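Protein Entry — a single chain follows
Fields — amino acid sequence, structure tokens
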Amino acid sequence: MTPGLALLLVSIFLVFVLMVLFALYRHPGFRGRSIEEVAHYMHQVREYLPELEEYLDPERQAALKKNWGEAYPIEMARLVRCFREFLKRMRTNAGVLAEFAETERYDFNKACRAAFWSLAAAQAGHAHLSRLERMPEKQAGETWDDFDENDTWVTAEQLADSEATVATESEHLAGLRHRLQAAERFMLSANRCHAALALPLLRATLWNMVPFARLRFLPVPKLASFGNSGKVYVPAQYRELKAAALELLALLYPGGEEIRNEIEAQM
């Protein structure tokens, strides 16, 4: 084997290993994000978002230009840094919530499959009992010893218990599917918000590299561009995501009020 061929084979093997590791990293079964981790990984946005949102108004920026005078480019550079930081925080929060929802969807998918087969077994057992003969009512003076043990009798109590089991399993599966659908809807919303924040964050990052505060002939960015991603107004979408996150957490973890409050205080 030539050295060139050996190097090629090693490179292919390394690429294959990296692809496997990346696939495992992306798989929610290995990368699961618990509700406790959601609270720990949230970044503070709530306290500063209303103030930053005020600067997205073009009229407010025009007033600032008039009031700040020569200090306007320097102050604008400071605001660009602030927007970059908090857009990055918002996008991180949306990503953490998306990972949490993906983990919940994965877990509920497994639980739904197990519940489906449990329900199928209960339904099969009930169908089997329904095909058997009903146990006749005992007459006065008769005991169960008077009936032939080889007869395939079934009592009304057995049928009732079987029906109750089927109903319980059906209700359990329906509840799991409801939570699964809620997690899937939220995961889509979180991914949309995460994607929408990418463009404003890119704008803020690029403008942060432009030395317009020192080179006065360079243009000053329009702060309103940091609040829009296409036709999406980013602060409003982020607030909708926050409300949906609190609603989902209340559904999945009714007893986790402390964690919900912590997340609400951060987002």
About this structure: The CA atoms of residues 81 and 208 lie 6 Å apart. Confidence is low (pLDDT under 50) at residues 146-150. The radius of gyration is 31 Å.
